């Protein structure tokens, strides 16, 4: 094997804006993630889990350590190459859905393909296909603010899937949803992971959400304090 | 990202905030309209002056005979019979002089059938049409023979033709000037107004000798009132002016301590002054217009900055899903450009319409040219790029994580 899908070593992040004396947001994080894993990242706020997520998603850069994606060190990539990787390799799902309000759901789903240069007909076809996959085939023309929270998050998932990503980065995807809808969304993630083999990195602070994953990484004060398989029996504390 | 998608995106985001877009565009509209209108008025004025200047003839000097005085009363130039046909012939021999057109004017009533008209009758020599750059439209010019034998022939200016003949062809007809029969041998081309606004076409040309001896009963035979002198070139007008002054002082036997009994006026200088005034006027109008354009441009920059700040989160989302720096840059630049182009087009339309209305209402000439419209359009587009670039760059250089965190 040429190497791991994701391999980070001694990853550290110190914000320049942080008050002197505060510990780094992230320090000496070393781990690997293989294709097809479903990883939950947990930890109290300020533990560094979001920083970790942003660095993995190439939205932020580490101040120390190395990050190899598919064997390639991302430190050497230009901003345009980073944009290309975000477009082709990653799909993002956010807590606040982050759909563009002014365009329809189908256009939101098609947006990553706009940046990858796909033709208009390809984009429409694929957007419809993806909306079908998340169960919103009939809602392509709807504007995002006409949809319920759960539906909006499904549109966001369809958007994340649009460019055939290898990794879906989901930052508290159920944080704004009720329990019933959360269950549906997590069911969707699980199915996607099983059926398409897409790797999922899920940040959450709810145990029952993390329980959908196969592997659990816990952060505390910028360090990894636990990394192992999810023990399904211990969902309640 | 292909251009068409960016254009559609930009159009949609402008449409999302119609009032703000319209107000921003208004700045551009006013700026471009002001430039177009001001330039149209300025160019129109300049054209009007230039036409009057060229209608005078080129490289011209005019020599007026001296003033007479009776006791303490001093009459104006052109009253004393000091210039003669002999002077004209002598001046014509000077090296810097191309041609001389001595003129003997008078007012007279002219009649054809029952129609009659009071006009200016100019006694001239064959050189007159060439010196004044005033071509004959039909028929022939007065000849040397006409001048020598003081024949009763006449050429009519366009206004006189219109007053006496309406649509009839005047050539070959006989008219009466002060009751005397004159044969019309030609008609002059329309010349328009002179610099002082006189209708130059309201005149009749006759041989100078005829005017002197038969029409206006000259008490001093062989004298002329004024003459036009054409110098060989524009540069030669100054030296021709000096040579003529020297020559005439000599011919008129004027002592060094005596004043000239004639006046030489350089019409080239008059024309230059008039053109310069018109040019400054149109420059000033253009400058006023440009200031409004700059103000409009700053309005656009202001709105684009607000728009970038407001949409920081959107920029973050776009970057997260794969927008490159240049995609974001293009999007905002295109929005600014679109405001300017649409505003520019509307401004051109309003400017042209406004200039036309102003021209109609104030009875002044306005001139549009495709180049002015094109320049106004280019300037509005350039304003868009210039004032849109900074906000757009600010948007494009945000870090994705910061943009996403923005509330």
The Rg value of chain A, from CA coordinates, equals 18 Å
**Number of helical stretches of at least 4 residues of chain B:** 13
Strand order of the largest sheet of chain B: 5-6-11-8-10-9
CA radius of gyration of chain B: 33 Å
Mass-distribution shape of chain B: elongated
Strand content of chain A: 15-25%
- Which CATH-level-2 architecture of chain A? 3-Layer(aba) Sandwich
Largest beta-sheet characterization of chain B: 6 strands, mixed, barrel
- The overall pLDDT average of chain B reads 85
Number of domains of chain B: 2
Number of strands of chain A: 10
How is this structure best described in words?
The complex is a heterodimer of chains A (237) and B (407). With 237 residues, chain A is an alpha/beta fold. Chain A has a single domain (6-234), classed as Rossmann fold, CATH 3.40.50.300. Chain A contains 7 helices and 10 strands. Chain A has a 6-stranded mixed β-sheet, with helices on both faces. The radius of gyration of chain A is 18 Å and the shape is globular. The mean pLDDT of chain A is 89. Chain B is elongated and about 105 Å long. In chain B, the strands form 3 sheets. A 6-stranded mixed beta barrel of chain B has the order 5-6-11-8-10-9, surrounded by 4 helices. A two-stranded antiparallel sheet of chain B has the order 2-3. Chain B starts with a helix and ends with a helix. Chain B folds into 2 domains: 3-52 and 275-405, no CATH class; 81-260, no CATH class. Chain B contains 13 helices and 14 strands. The chains are: A alpha/beta (237), B alpha+beta (407). Chain A binds chain B through residues 54, 57, 59-60, 79-80, 83-84, 86-88, 92, 94, 98, 100, 102-103, 111-112, 114-117, 120, 159, 163, and chain B through 1-2, 5, 12-13, 16, 313-314, 317-327, 399-401, 404.
